[in-house]
Specification:
9-stranded mixed beta sheet, 43% helix, glycosyltransferase activity, 18% strand, 2 domains, Spore Coat Polysaccharide Biosynthesis Protein SpsA, Chain A
């Protein structure tokens, strides 16, 4: 039997609430020339039971061995396909064209990676819904280093649902040292090497989180840490300006809610939470940018990772 053309790599950890639906939609694709590799980090719920109902290749690792870049690199080394598809356990392909709409972009030999559109779940809070709706829009983008003037937007890439050309990954694997945003670091590297990145909004997954304040703080701390490591600067992010940033983002929230038929009583309910939420996000990100100046005890307390 010949090797599959594509390898779908899913990292799991206690994913019972979404994993069955995720795998059902994967195996319902029009494009069928693929294998599925599941790498589980010591799940204690029904994840492994769910996985056993599907024809996947299962690999188990210890929690302490997990890393967003490290484990995805492990999956790539296991893969037999020439295309590496990364899908998170809580991202649900919207329809049966999700996969073919990713792979079709590689007709252009200069394309190194493609990522999908995200749309929020019905129960998504308005802040996350706005972020997703504005960050993953309806317009296809082909990004290359020629668009240097918009560099931060240029390198954006998301392994929530993505596809990489494996021969490019061979030359540019993910950075094992990053706590998160390994996808954007990879995108930056391949763009600087002359490749293209494509955002294809016709490949769609349903994906969003309603995170607690603690989870948000740690997420943004790790994002700030990764930003500093990738871009090596913390310019224009000043502590005294954070209140102004928070107010500006709340105006974006209000505009989004008014434009999406939220009831006045719902808006009144959400606004106080918006102040707290965006302040926590901003402080977390700022502290992450200054991770190299923090004592080890605080870094261990602030991060969602076990890296320190």
């Amino acid at each position: 039997m010949s090797d599959p053309e594509a390898s779908i790599i899913i990292l799991t950890r206690n994913g019972e609430s979404t994993l069955r639906e995720c795998l059902e939609h994967v195996y319902a694709q029009n494009y069928t020339n693929f294998e599925v590799i599941v790498i589980d980090s010591a799940s204690t719920d029904r994840t492994l039971e769910i996985v056993s109902a599907f024809p996947v290749k299962l690999f188990n690792i210890n929690v302490k061995d997990f890393g967003h870049g490290k484990t995805r690199n492990f999956g790539a080394r296991l893969a037999k396909g020439k295309y590496l598809i990364y899908l998170t356990q809580d991202a649900i392909p919207l329809n049966d064209k999700w996969l073919e709409n990713l792979i079709r972009n590689f007709k252009d030999k200069d394309v190194a990676g493609v990522y999908s559109r995200n749309i929020p779940r019905p129960d998504c809070d308005p802040f996350e819904a706005r972020y997703i709706s504005t960050g993953w829009g309806p317009t296809r983008e082909v990004k290359s280093i020629r668009d240097y003037k918009n560099y931060k937007k240029l390198v954006f890439f998301s392994n929530t649902s993505s596809c990489l050309r494996k021969d490019v990954w061979d030359k540019f694997p993910f950075d094992d040292s990053l706590v998160q945003t390994e996808d954007q670091a990879w995108s930056k590297e391949v763009l600087e090497a002359g490749y293209k990145i494509v955002y294809d909004p016709d490949s769609i997954v349903i994906h969003s989180h309603n995170n607690s304040l603690e989870v948000l703080f740690k997420k943004y701390f790790d994002a700030g840490t990764a930003h500093m490591k990738i871009f090596k600067n913390r310019n224009n992010v000043y502590l005294p300006l954070i209140p102004f940033f928070v107010v500006a983002v709340i105006f974006l929230d209000l505009r989004f809610m008014l434009g999406h038929a939220y009831k006045p009583i719902e808006i009144v309910k959400w606004v106080p939470e918006a102040f707290v939420r965006h302040f926590v996000e901003a402080i977390g990100f700022w502290l992450g940018l200054h991770f190299d100046r923090l004592p080890l005890s605080l870094k261990r307390k602030f991060t969602a990772s076990g890296r320190y």
